[in-house]
Amino acid sequence: EEQFRRLKSQRENTEQEMSQMEVQLTTHIEEKEELREQYQSKEAFAMKTAIEVEQMQLKAEKLRHEYDNLQKKYSEEVLSRSMTGSVNSENSDLWRILALMDRTS
After folding, report:
1. What is the DSSP letter of 89?
2. Contact between 51 and 45 (Cβ < 8 Å)
3. What's the confidence (pLDDT) of residue 5?
4. What torsion do the CA atoms of 92, 97, 103, 104 make, to the nearest 10 degrees?
5. 9 falls in which pLDDT band (50, 70, 90)?
6. Which residues contact 87 (CB under 8 A, 6 or more apart)?
7. What is the pLDDT of residues 22-65, one digit of tens each?
8. Residues in CB range of 102: below 8 A, 6 or more apart
9. Which end of the chain is more exposed for a tag (fewer CB within 10 A), N or C?
């Protein structure tokens, strides 16, 4: 009889421990899943940001190339006008744009 009560008590204690372990395991699994989702979200954001940075670098490179071409045309035109004596004779939109670009570079 005494042995039966001890075995029953041990079994109940073991069941409680198993139940607690199940709860801990479930919590641990849920935390791991949440961390995995956070990591994937951050990884996706990092990839998106890297793509945006690359696109901006390409755009900047294109703008730099366009600026260099305009600057070359501007310099050629200034040289041409200085040779003909008509450097300040016109105030076209192109001249204003090129002058502004020249000041900002």
Report:
1. S
2. no
3. 92
4. 180
5. very high
6. 78, 81
7. 999 999 999 999 999 999 999 999 999 999 999 999 999 999 99
8. 71, 74
9. N
C-beta of residue 103 within 8 angstroms of C-beta of residue 67: no
DSSP of 17-47, one letter per residue? HHHHHHHHHHHHHHHHHHHHHHHHHHHHHHH
Amino acid at 97: I
Say how far apart CA 84 and CA 62 lie, in whole Å.
33
In the chain, the N- to C-terminal Cα span, in Å, equals 97
How far apart CA 90 and CA 96 sit, in angstroms, is 10
Q: Please name the residues in contact with 105: beta carbons below 8 A apart, sequence gap of 6 or more.
A: 67, 71
Which residue, chain included where needed, has tokens 């641990």?
28
> pLDDT over 90 for what percent of the chain?
64
